[in-house]
Amino acid sequence: MVANLERDSLILRVWSLLHRVRDVLMRCEDERFGQYGITSEQYGVLVTLKYIGESARPTDIARWLGRSPNSVSMILDRMAKAGLVRRVRSRKDRREVSVVMTSKAESALKPATKAGLEFIQKVMSPLLDEDLSTLVQLLEIIRHAGVQCMDQEVTIDELRGNDITSQRDLMKRLKQYTLSTTSRTKRQGGKKGKTTR
What we know:
Blueprint: H1 2-34, H2 40-52, E1 55-56, H3 58-65, H4 69-81, E2 85-89, E3 97-101, H5 103-124, H6 129-149, H7 156-161, H8 170-179, H9 183-187
């Protein structure tokens, strides 16, 4: 009985910490990304668009972010209103809609990515590589159990395959993106704040 009570207390502490850590990290991200006129949710959409291509269907974005299509649709509505994305209908099939980043989003994404990567490095710096690997494994187990609670039959490997962060080259591509300059920026003498499209 005492062992069960100790385990239950530990489980509750872990559960509470997971929520608190997420809340703190989201607030910190919103603060950093807010300097560039975007939220952490909007940043996630923009990185997804950058990673999977210049235009993507809302369902593709939802899958990559691990969110419901409805929640992504609401985020996209706010982003369209803010001038960060445009919805473009397919000429072949009017029912098909793609999402395209605007130049406003493009000019916010690069400095926001740099700030985001610096923040991630700072927060994670106390952890050793072994700690990070263990943390990933444990969080994947918890995420899988959570997905199963939603009556979704999916394996951990399927979850990993659908997770943008499991793409090995993502960090490399994000770092390269923050360092890259476009031909237009070069023609303008590398001035900051200019449109890169």
